[in-house]
What does this fold into?
Amino acid sequence: MKHIHIPETNITIPRIAASFAPAGSDYTDTHNYYLVDAYLELGGTFLDTANVYGRWFEQRLPVNELWLGRYFSERHNRHHFILDSKGGALNPWDKSIPRINSECLRHDLENSLSNLHTDYLDYYWVHVDDPAVPAGEILEIMNQFKKEGKIRYFGCSNWSAERIREAMRYADDKKITGFTAHQTMKNVAYPNMPAVLYDGMTYISSELEQLHTNNQFPLFAYTAAARGYFSLADRTDFQTAPQYRSCRELFDNNKSRERLTAIKKLAKETGWDLTQIVLAYIYQLPYPSVPVIGVQSLRDIVNCLIAMELPIPTDFFEKIISKEVHHE
It folds into this structure.
């Protein structure tokens, strides 16, 4: 297991950030406990969750945090992990109410601590942005949580380059702790941006790529395997099966198909697995990067471990990635 250090923190993490038991999963607690145990045994320590995960179901419960709290209660091993969560996301049942404010962020944090049976989080993410709120105001809220000992460090998720730069300037001017990492969607597929934005997500833009590169600002890349697109796209039922609808809407287009052709050719020439090649893209980015993986089987973890070591030519991904860029 390879590791990276998050600058301006004392945190060194494995290059696999793992999210287990996706909300709505059919898997049992026993199955997911086994996967977390296996991840830990393989050197994995970074657990990713969010207070909103699962709240879109009828009962509006934070399903993901609750089961992870049960895991910690049974295993008594919270201290072995670097644990994160996220707060401030819009309520799935009413997305008209902004929640990036002190009251809502504190509510989500306190609820996460209770759900996870812990008195602190190693890392806390502002899950979404609200450009109407000054970045400095958000940093002051995070610094207060840090001062209270409820969080150790914090980052932003789904923010624009302009807003991250605003936060960086404020932290420098006020000599306070700033964001130390960013979490957003990044993978080798070409995204259908209307579908990405409709789902409330963001995809890394050219401006963000430059910011991450110039500042060596760590990226936690969610949907790093493009929801399995490169393994699924050639299935005979891919265009019709309802379970692939989200994957189709997010990533199926001519550019992604061209990239799939090139990746399949490399896989055939080398014997490497398609998913491992796709994940290797994240590990070859020119700035500190960690894929956030939704783990449903031991194979998901193994794929990352192998992807870290694949000797893919450094220019392979440059050649297959379109020169078109996504602007903010």
